[in-house]
Design goal:
Structural class: alpha/beta
Largest sheet: 7 strands, parallel
Distance between the termini: 40 Å
Shape: globular
CATH superfamily of the domain at 3-186 and 215-247 and 319-339: NAD(P)-binding Rossmann-like Domain
Number of strands: 11
CATH class of the domain at 3-186 and 215-247 and 319-339: Alpha Beta
CATH topology of the domain at 3-186 and 215-247 and 319-339: Rossmann fold
Helix content: 25-40%
Number of helices: 10
CATH architecture of the domain at 3-186 and 215-247 and 319-339: 3-Layer(aba) Sandwich
């Protein structure tokens, strides 16, 4: 970041969320002025550590008028806010992730915002079928028509909508496509992988899983890449995979997590994925029904299913994604090798009791 960037004014959406908190921390360290926006009733505990260093402005992506005060006098909008749920209804995902992004961009255009960095997801690639994609998957390849997950579809539609404003209005937009994000404080998505391995719920893995790849990205690199792409004159109309160097395949990653959580990952004989996958799908459907109908609600809301059906596909596709495009643009990853970041986050989980059976 150049010295001319100091004092620039930013807005971070979904400010009470995991990725946003790390981004705010980075922006403040770089001497940016930060506005933070989230729902009026959002839990702001994670923002308390910033004190009066940030300005909180309540806003709702589904209410365009509520966003106008948030984007006023802002140079760059960072937009990680989304419904991140593999179980949410399609209408909710579209209302927030797609239509909400349109609302934000439109008020940003009206307010003469200089740049918007939009969070998409590698989920938009759909099924990582080598018959469709050249491996590793690069950003310039045509998206697979096989995209069944509701969240995945919403992120694909969100990115398409955002890019439309660049093409039609020349509004400066850059898009990041984060891999599943890990790091201190994440409690959904990839966190469940740590939890299942540590608690020995996932203690057996077929040998042929070494042919599969699980993409990961450290939350610090997500924040750093967003800041890197925020230059108003560069990277516009472009999307970038944000993913580590894929130093470990799926089996190696599971074994590495197991070793560092004092568990043992037993490697069984190869199992045909076409046989194994339907059983997991059935368990995922049951888990969703159980969470919504049988298990005790927390704060009036159903609990997250033990295993969500839309996540099953990530275990069976070859999700080896290229990060060469953003490297060629000049970005350097702080955590290119997941082995370093995984040890750090496991230590954090243990210190905060997040890997205990009762969490």
């Amino acid at each position: 970041m150049s010295s001319s960037d100091k004092g620039k004014r930013s807005l971070v959406t979904g400010a009470c969320g995991f990725s946003a908190g790390h981004l705010i921390d980075l922006l403040l360290k770089k001497d940016w002025k930060v506005k933070a926006t989230d729902l009026k009733n959002a839990n702001r505990t994670s923002l308390e550590r910033f004190g009066d260093q940030i300005e909180f402005v309540a806003g709702d992506l589904t209410d365009k008028d509520s966003l106008k005060p948030a984007v006023k006098d802002v140079d760059v909008v960072y937009h990680p806010a989304a419904v991140f749920s593999y179980s949410a209804p399609m209408e909710v995902l579209r209302k927030v992730n797609v239509e909400g992004t349109k609302n934000l961009i439109e008020v940003s255009i009206d307010a003469n915002v200089g740049k918007l960095v939009c969070w998409s997801s590698v989920a938009l690639y759909g099924t990582a079928d080598p018959k469709h994609y050249k491996i590793p998957i690069t950003e310039d390849q045509e998206l697979s028509p096989n995209c069944k997950g509701r969240y995945d579809i919403s992120k694909r539609e969100q990115e398409l909508a955002a890019m439309g404003y660049y093409k039609e209005n020349k509004f400066p937009i850059s898009v990041i496509r984060p891999a599943p994000i890990y790091g201190p404080g994440t409690y959904y998505g990839i966190y469940m992988l740590f939890k299942y391995v540590q608690q020995a719920s996932l203690s057996i893995c077929p040998r042929n899983m070494k042919k599969k790849s699980i993409p990961l990205a450290h939350v610090i690199d997500i924040a750093r890449s967003a800041l890197f792409l925020s230059d108003e004159a560069k990277f516009n109309g472009e999307a970038y995979n944000i993913v580590d160097d894929n130093s470990l395949n799926m089996l190696q990653t599971l074994k590495y997590i197991a070793f560092n959580t004092n568990q043992r990952m037993k490697v069984m004989l190869p199992m045909p994925m076409k046989i194994f996958q339907p059983f997991l799908k059935i368990f995922g459907i049951f888990s969703y029904w159980e969470a919504n109908h049988l298990r005790k609600k927390v704060n009036g809301k159903p609990q997250v299913p033990k295993l969500e059906s839309d996540t099953i596909g990530y275990m069976f596709g070859n999700f080896w994604l290229s990060n060469q495009k953003i490297k060629d643009a000049g970005f350097t990853f702080k955590y290119p090798d997941r082995r370093i970041g995984l040890i750090e986050v496991i230590k954090w989980y243990n210190e905060h009791g997040w890997l205990t059976p009762h969490r």
